[in-house]
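Put briefly, the fold is written as integer tokens. One such record reads:
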Amino acid sequence: MTPPRPEAPSRARVLDFAARTAELLERAARAAAAEAADTDRTADRAATGPSEASSAGAGAAAGEDDGDGNGVRRLRAEAARAAGGAATLVVVGEKKRGKSSTINSLVGVPDLLPVDADVATGVHIVVRYGEHPRAVAHLRSEGDAPEAPPRTEPIPLERIAEYAAVDPLTGRPHRYDVHHVEVELPVPLLASGLEIIDTPGVGGLVGGHAELALAALENADALVFVVDGSSELTRSELEFLGRATERTAETVFVLTKTDSYDAWPAVVERNRELLARHAPRHAGAPWFPVSNRARRDAVAAADSGELQEAAELLEESGFEPLEALLRRRIAARAAELRLANVVHVALAALAAPLAEQELRLRSLQQEPGLAAEVEGAEEALRQLQPESAQWRRALTTGSRDLKNTLQLGFRRSLNDVRQVAEEKIATSEPGALAEEFPAELEAQVEAVWLQLDNAARRGLAALEERVRAECATVLDAGRTDGKGGGKGDGRADGSGPGTELALVEDGAVIRAERGTLLPEMVRSTHRDGGPFGMLENVIPTVGTAATFGTVIGLLTSSVLLPAVASYAMLAVLTRRRRQRAELGRVRGDATRHLNRVLTELTTEIPAQITDHVDGLADRLGLALDRAIVDERLRLERRLTEHRRNLATSAAELAAARDRTKRRIGALTTLRDEGLALAHGLAATGRPDPDRS
């Protein structure tokens, strides 16, 4: 029997712990400011008493490491994210597999997303919880400055297709200025902590739309892969799943149209075999056979008051087990990860003032050798200040390496774009190429930007950590509390110098100067009408047609048949010539469009990479310079305070020690509570033993 899993700490407990931690740190900072002001006034009168100095030092120590409140602000921000954040489900599937219908069924709104057989989604649609139903289109603004906020436009729910779908006749988007659409609904499933993203379905799982879906998966908590019961997984679906292996930790398969295909159980078994062979990472993922039609009928029955029939149809639809898993596994696990991050940030915020208070207590206990420790730490800090310091070399080298890595990745992405686009140009029919190529290429470019943005975020975070690690040993040792971490790891709780820098902002890191709108494909024209156009098309084929007619005449000895044969051959050859000319014209248009787009990208993006990495390196250098100066001033204050304590009476020292011990007690109690919460969250975050 599998032992029961430990109960996870509730969100309320964690958020309450975070609120009490922030409140304590804010009180300490206010007390530090008040006591420091009292000390300054006393010093002005040249009558600073030992007790006041000790008290001021103790108060400052409780709050000075929080400085301008970065730690508290970050803690409150993380708590807010945990309170309102949701697990992200990226829904992916080939065209006409029932992807949008499945989303409609999950949220219980049958007509939310367009589901007509000949209509496909052209942009991302994000569906999340909201107290009132509403939809907002996020619009691109060509020509606006990169830092300009995106434009938004509220839209009625019934007009989502107008903004998010493509025209079924032309295959082109109804609106070219729409980047994505966000929808909010007061739905229990979404309220449980889920956010659903419907990926563009114009190109299925090939070309640019596959890249776009893969890029979206990097920031997702789970992949919901939609297939139908008509046939086994296709090659493109298996290739996509193989590439998606490292992008997400959780995969759920939904098999639709069980009411239309009686053989769907055999299809599921065959699909499991294919996954084991071609995408083994997903072989153990759960499968949920569903009927969107039954789910839609259940909603209609419930709306008409037929509750018994609605319950039966809902059970028949197969959606209840799917929704239960999404709530239990995906939403709950993502919530635990966010709560664990809140606890981590709270522990990091508590570590510095607790270390300060423990150091203060050592001084008040007049430990021998403390002054020598502080002086040694001051000397170590001075070694970080010259231009030749190791951390500066690490910053220069790291930023150069990051730029090279991003530039290389970008060039490789462009090569992939060119390869996929040229294959489509070479193999597509003229009509399909003319209508589908611009949308396919735009999806590929959007994927390049997402991939580059993800890579930039990872690289910038690694650079920040690498440079901070070069300073961590000295800056942590400068606290002289015996708890500094080794080189490269900061303190054991994950805090350390520069922890609160948060240099990678929200929103896109790498962005094209001209926004995300691409130039439209210029379509050339060829006038083949009129007498000259007719002659141009007919004359090259007249000789072949006449020869064919002559051969027929010789074989049949007929007079009329050769003329008919010559005319028929002339028509066939003329039509084929026109088709070849049209194919060449469309391929030429597509090739010129591809080259123009790639030229735009190679002009815009490399400069963006260089500017952004250089800007972050400059900011990181300035932030660490400030950290070193602040730490030196802190050490000077400690040394001055320690020397004062050596001259303080026993009674005054005893009173100051009592105050410091009370502060240490309050901080330690919160720290121990946080450690217990972290342990509980870590235990429940292990893989679910009953996972199917």
The first helix runs from residue 11 to 44. The first strand starts at residue 87 and ends at 93. Residues 223 and 251 are 5 Å apart (CA to CA). The chain has a mean pLDDT of 75.
